[in-house]
Amino acid sequence: MEGNVLEECVLELFRIGVVKFGSFTLKSGMQSPVYFDLRIIISFPKLLETVAQLMWEKRPGTDYQLVCGVAYTGIPIATVISNKQDVPMVIRRKETKGYGTKKMVEGIYEKNQECLMIEDVIVSGSSVYETVETLVELGLEVKDAVVFLDREQGGASNLTALGINIIPVITLTELMEILLKHGRVNQDTYNSVKEFVASHNDTSIVTKAKISCKNGIKVTDRKDQTFESRISTTNHPLSRRLFKIMLRKKTNLCVAADVATSQQLLSLADQLGPHICLLKTHVDLMSDFTLDTTQELKELAEKHNFLLFEDRKFGDIGNTVAKQYSGGAHKVVEWAHLVTAHALPGPGVIEGLASAAQDQERGCVLVSQMSSVGALTSNEYVNGCSRLAENHTYFVVGFVSQSSVSGDSRFILFTPGVQLEKSVDGLGQQYVTPRAAVLERGADIIIVGRGITQASDPVATAITYKHQAFSAYEERVAGGTS
Ligand code: 5IU
Q1: 192 ligand 1 Cβ < 6 A
Q2: Is residue 1 scored above 80 in pLDDT?
Q3: How far is the CA of 298 from the centre of ligand 1 (A)?
């Protein structure tokens, strides 16, 4: 019976133009002789209902508290399932609002609820993976994903390896068999698709970390690993130094000294030095900057054992950033261990900075997400940053971010927008507490500016931030597996 419903459904999908033959470029850049475009299903409500029913019947479990459709075409299918089966639904946004994972998911949910994923087509499985990853980060249990069509290009095995059980309603081969049997395609078309499937069955996906599901996949996420264990996995000498400083001084606090004079900068560095692992500067704010100031700063950094971090946010082509970094009045490369860079220009910005650093021990931190309201750091940008970092581990130490943008334990996550109370500053800055930054947003190091520099007692206040952030880190790794 189900066989007939499925066959009729496939023939109907073919009739309305969901299945196309020719030469198509897939999202991954791969050329394919067949394209399956289920997006138009929303124009055929009855057929949409059939598709949703066929998918629901394939669910392996019996006790889902939620359904979630992968954007975009999974969403209308999941909506129909949710409505017919009376199972509440959640939606994961495709574009981030630029902050926290929580804001990426709409709908009401509770930790440990089991969610069934719904997707129209899988090629490599990356869209399913990204959606599951967000839901798992929020504490939901996601084991099963029903997809309408498996294009048999490696997606199912990619996801199985990550602990996600993929159940297709139909594979591309089965779909072609139905079309051939009913004379909708000829033998040549059938053969060309078969050959394509046979020669394109091993796509891969880039993953942040393995998904932690009840089915026992080991969590290897950065957040769960101690700084000690990360010393041996990172290959950047400055990351290793920073981990050692944090452990020795029991501090993951970076102070942002946005001050106007050398005297203020040096005084803060000396007073706060014992409590910080890193001092972040904007030396272009200073009216009396000279290289003598940086000489004294370097001495204080040695005396108190912290590193220097100039937040210049380099963002031009390689040739220009190389000159900006080594030249001008500030000669940043000569004194700052770390600098920030935007990923917008692509690999050239990192290569330019690295060329100017020559053989000095220097590194950069990519701005992956910003703390300000309405930041334009989309998901695609964030993923692009991670890929850039993975390809340039000799120079990239980590990311400035507002969420756990990478599960890769080699990278250090720096989170600004931190104060003792959740608040805003009137010019777009948004603050979370040190605990929330470390435990909810996955920060390794918190960056605090005015919360400390404008406090009536900056030293006592820095000690409070230091304790809160470091104990949150200890709590985080105590809950981990390594
Ligand atoms: N900073 C942010 N948010 C960001 C990035 C950098 O606040 O997303 I990238 C900088 C700006 C300032 C410091 O130098 O971090 C935070 O200072 P306050 O804690 O005073 O807001």
Answers
A1: no
A2: no
A3: 22
User: For a pLDDT cut of 70, what percent of the chain falls above it?
Assistant: 93
Angle formed at CA 257 by CA 271 and CA 255, multiple of 5 degrees: 70
Q: Which amino acid is present at 141?
A: E
Q: Which residue has the tokens 């499985």?
A: 125
Token pair listed for 361: 């021990």
What does the pLDDT look like over 310-342, one tens digit per residue?
Answer: 999 999 999 999 999 999 999 999 999 999 999
Work out whether strand 105-106 and strand 89-92 pair parallel, antiparallel, or are unpaired.
Answer: antiparallel
Confidence of residue 154 (pLDDT cuts 50, 70, 90): confident
Q: Which DSSP letter does residue 418 get?
A: B
pLDDT digits (tens, 9 = 90+) for 343-394: 999 999 999 999 999 989 999 999 999 999 999 988 889 989 998 998 898 9
Ligand 1 atom nearest 450 alpha carbon: 20
CB 209 within 8 A of CB 222: yes
The answer, yes or no, to whether any atom of ligand 1 lies below 6 A from the CB of 417, is yes
- Give per-residue pLDDT as tens, 383-417: 899 989 988 989 999 999 999 988 888 899 999 99
What domains lie within the chain, and their CATH numbers? 4-199 (3.40.50.2020), 222-477 (3.20.20.70)
Q: Dump strand ranges (E) for 72-114.
A: 89-92, 105-106
- The atom of ligand 1 lying closest to the CA of 375 is 8
Which own/partner pairs from 28-33 qualify as long-range (CB within 8 Å, at least 24 positions apart)? 28/123, 28/124, 28/203, 30/123, 30/153, 30/200, 30/203, 32/196, 32/200, 33/189, 33/192, 33/193, 33/196
Bridging pattern class, strands 363-367 and 338-342: parallel
